[in-house]
Structure formats: C-alpha cells, structure tokens
Amino acid sequence: MNPLWPIRILFLGLCIVAGYAVSQAQDYVGHEHNGALGMVFGFGFGGLLIAVDEMLKGFSLRAFSATTFGLFLGWLVALLVDHSGLFGDAEGNTRTLIRLGLFLSFGYIGMVLAMRSNKEDFSLIIPYVRFSPQNKPDNLLLLDTSVIIDGRIADLIEAKLIEGLVIVPRFVLLELQQIADSLDEVKRARGRRGFEMLNRLQHNTKIEVRIHDGDFPDEKGVDAKIVRLARNLNAKLFTNDYNLAKVAGLQSVSCVNLHEIGHLMKAALIPGEIVQLKVVREGRDKGQGIGYLPDGTMVIVNNGHDQVGQTVSAHVLSTVQTGAGVLVFAEVKPQNGK
Length: 338
Description:
By secondary structure, the chain is an alpha/beta fold. 49% of the residues lie in helices and 18% in strands.
C-alpha cells in the first residue's frame, strides 16, 4: 500500500468534517439537509485534490519551477500584446474574450517551452546567474541492478577506493524485488544476493545510502530511467551492463563499468612465467586442455588433454587480447623441470 494513502484518507475525512461545519455555520445552501450536502461538497473537494495529486505523481520540483517560470513569461508576453493597442477597437465582452484567449494561449505555450528546455537554456535568459545547492555532495554514486547483484561495489567502498553518497532508485529496488520473487531458482538467488549487498552497504558506517523516489513514467525501461536520473542528478552511474554503459556515454553521462575495471586490474602474464591451474576440459584442437586462472582468464594448455581434472604447472607461451578479454596459451611443464 502506498504510504501516502493513510494521509490522504485522513485529509479526506477532515474535508468532510469541514464541509459539514461550514454548512452549519452559514445557511447558504437553502435546503433542509444542509449538513449532508456540506459533507458531500467536502468529500468532492478532497477527492478532487487527491485526484490532482495522483495525476502529478512523478512531477518533480524542477518541473514545477520550470512550469511556473514558463507561465509567468507567457502571461508577460500576453500582457504586452494586450497593451499594444492591437485590439483597441474591441469593447465589452469581445475584449474580455480576447484577453482570456491571449493569456490562456501564451501561458500554455510558455509552460510547454519551459518543460521542454533544460537548465542551460535558462542561463541564456538569465545570464551570469547559476542556481546550485550549497550542500550538494561532492560525489553521487548511482547504482543499477546489475552492479548491486554483483556485489563488488561493496568491497570497493569498504576499501575506500570509491567514496561518495550511494543512490539507489526506487524503480531499481522494484526490479530487484521482481528478480528475487522469480520462479527461476538462479534469478531468485541473484535477487536475494542483491538485497544482502544493499543491507551490507546500509550497515557500513563509512558511507551513506539513500533511496531515491524519483521516477519517469514516460520512460518504459529501467535502463532509460536510470540514465535520465543520472543526468538530472549529475551522478556517476555504476553498472556491469555493457550496452547501458555505451548508452550512458552517448548521452554524456559519467558511467563506470565494473567489468572493464576488472579486466584492467588483471595481472599481465609474461611469456615464460609459470602458472598453477586446474585443467577442467579438453580443448578444441587435438592435445589441448582448457583451464582458468583465479580471475577467470581462460588458459589453453598444449599437451594438457591427458591432465583433465588435475592441477598442473604450465609456462606461458603467449597472450592474445580479444574482445572478451585476454586469452593465454601455455604448455604443461615437464615434471622433471626440463
């Protein structure tokens, strides 16, 4: 249940009581059932305000400020047109209708233009004036679903490699809850891991975690919403999604892909270096075995097909950089060391 509904119900009850009280204080209805009619009016007034509140859900303070500014500019233009003498010959009701049309038309156009503009457009209208909160955090860290489930962000924060105010959008929490409630056992485990990681972050005294209630109903996907939120908050987006990182970069949003950082932090192997690894399966070519280093790097081991299931010592022959990462070619080291 929406936490606002108890407040709305209380407000609606107060409106009904107020309507009854007004009907008893002044006999303006002209009917013997003034009290009941006053309660109906109070209920209708409260219901109307609640309906307007529901329609304005997701309407941010910035949008309200922009709309008010646009309405003011529209009315200013309408006032100038009205006093220009263009409609000086009109009299009576005709002049009233013209003025009403002017203010409604220019007010609407001003609000629409203001809503479609961005903060840089206002600096053109009001040069040299910039509005910025004085208590704005130095660094906002906006987390998406993939990086929350991954969990490495918590290790980086605890090691003080990343510092700032952690922001978790409400719509990301909803997506995480859907994953945790999935019928698929693997997805359900991933969702629960994400909630455990968030709980771990909230108990970390070194950082502050905030749940952001901002939403964008006109955006369909979570990725589009989080990129737009990052742009509005001027926050740094953390993700493991390659495509999301690319979309964010195209929209000039600062983004960090933890997978790319992981690839960059992998130790560089030098030809001739000895590595210990377990051969897990046979390779594609004859005589090859496949093993993996602790960081997940694939190693193709020549003459390793007979060592499947065993841990062997192999010396590195060469490394190849691919789109998926580094591919290592090695050869089993003879037991006698020759």
